[in-house]
Amino acid sequence: MAVIVQKYGGTSVQDHELVLRVAHRVAGLRSQGNDVVVVVSARGETTDRLMQEARRFTDAPEQRELDMLMSAGERISMSLLAIALNSIGCAAVSFTGSQAGIITDTRHTDARVLEVRPFRVVRELERGNVVVVGGFQGVSTAKDVTTLGRGGSDTTAVALAAALKADLCEILTDVDAVYTADPRIVPDARAIDEIGYGDMAELARLGARILKEEAVRFAERSGIAIHIAGSNSDAPGTIVLKEPHGQEPAIVGLSLLEDQIFLSVRRVDHDRMMSWVGAAAHPLFVVHSGDRIEIVVPGLPPGVVVPDDAAKDGVSGLSADVVAMNVDVVSIVGSGAAEGVVVTGAIAELERSGTNCIRSVALGRSALLVLPLGSGARAKLLLHDSFIGTGQ
Ligand code: ASP
Ligand code: MG
Q1: Residue 6: beta bridge partners?
Q2: What is the DSSP string of 361-378?
Q3: Are 323 and 260 a contacting pair, CB within 8 Å?
Q4: DSSP helix/strand/coil, 292
Q5: 51 alpha carbon – ligand 1 mean position (Å)
């Protein structure tokens, strides 16, 4: 008998009918004799709506209270799914992250999983129940409810799969596989059968929203293979694992982050930049380029004010002391992505199409191209054509 952990994303449990559909799929697995643990996300836009609700009172709600509030979204999904399962004759019980034994650090709204103690989950499985767990949440070492950062239900699923030594960890979502690029932007994008942890983590970090980077890292550390597939599709999906079988292409995919902030500061202002870098939660990169330090961040950290006179006139303004620009970042990912020919080829290709590359950074398994705001999607289409192509 196999132990299976399945995670369903928010769009897959959005309404009554979809919850029932998930329930039938889960019940099918259970009736084949498997032990099934289901992790669910909050329905649809619930998490965003809850945050907006809090911000109607203040711009700076207490992080602890935000966690209490946001974790409620997953409670709704988990209890409804358990009710739906029981209603069709499949015995189920739901647990919050805390009840499922997800222990985290105390960093509210962006906590890290430290340990999983799934005693209650195991006991309920032994009793023959399907266990439904609210994703994205845990309990801190200080016994407060925490959440794991946006997209954190993926992390819950992988952490539980590792703790239960599951035979299968499935992330089921509204997209039926990991693609070489977002198919909504690049119609020629292809589904990837197998991808290594390193490339998947890079794609996730650089904008592919299908799986949270943290979850991939967790899977890598515990050697868990993740199967990503559509919640409502029979397509084979993608397996994320240590080493894909067969010859892996040097470039596996492209990702895009729109509307980021590029900051370039002359080195004399090193202290100011370092304080910005310190405050920024997750800079995409930090580079020392000539006499300047440059970073790309998703948004300015609270309290960081860019001086009014920061040049905003694109590349020509790059001699000013402080430059702040809204940009798009297109990334090429794969073991060969950081090679010089790829980077220079990409820049030349973009230039031919009239897009100026503000900065390029090639490191490890990716090449990042910082482009003017609004040009990212077209650039991604173009680069997909030249680096991945239409057929294989
Ligand atoms: N509901 C949370 C979010 O919207 C967690 C998740 O969906 O994984 O980010
Ligand atoms: Mg997600």
Answers
A1: 38, 170
A2: EEETTEEEEEEETT-HHH
A3: no
A4: strand
A5: 12
* Ligand 1 centroid from CA 40, angstroms: 9
For the chain, the C-alpha Rg in angstroms (whole number) is 22
Q: Which two tokens stand for residue 256?
A: 């895009």
> Which SS3 state, helix, strand or coil, does residue 196 take?
strand
Task: Report pLDDT for 290.
Answer: 80
Core vs surface per residue 319-339: b (16+ CB within 10 A) or e: ebebbbbebbbbbbbbbbbbb
β-pairing, 359-363 vs 366-372, is antiparallel
- Rounded to the nearest angstrom, the distance between the alpha carbon of 68 and the centre of ligand 1 is 14
pTM of the model: 0.91
Torsion sign, CA atoms 103, 105, 108, 109: negative
DSSP state of 5: E
Residue 287: the pLDDT is 84
Task: Look at ligand 1, atom 6, and give the residue with the nearest C-alpha.
Answer: 151
Atom of ligand 1 minimally distant from the CA of 148: 5
User: What is the token pair recorded at 48?
Assistant: 């965003």
Q: Which residues of the chain are modeled with pLDDT < 70?
A: 276-281, 301-320, 390-392
Domains and CATH numbers, the chain: 3-174 (3.40.1160.10), 253-387 (3.30.2130.10)
**DSSP structure class, residue 359:** E
CB-defined site of ligand 1, < 6 Å: 10, 41-42, 47, 73, 135-136, 150-153
Å from CA of 46 to ligand 1 middle: 9
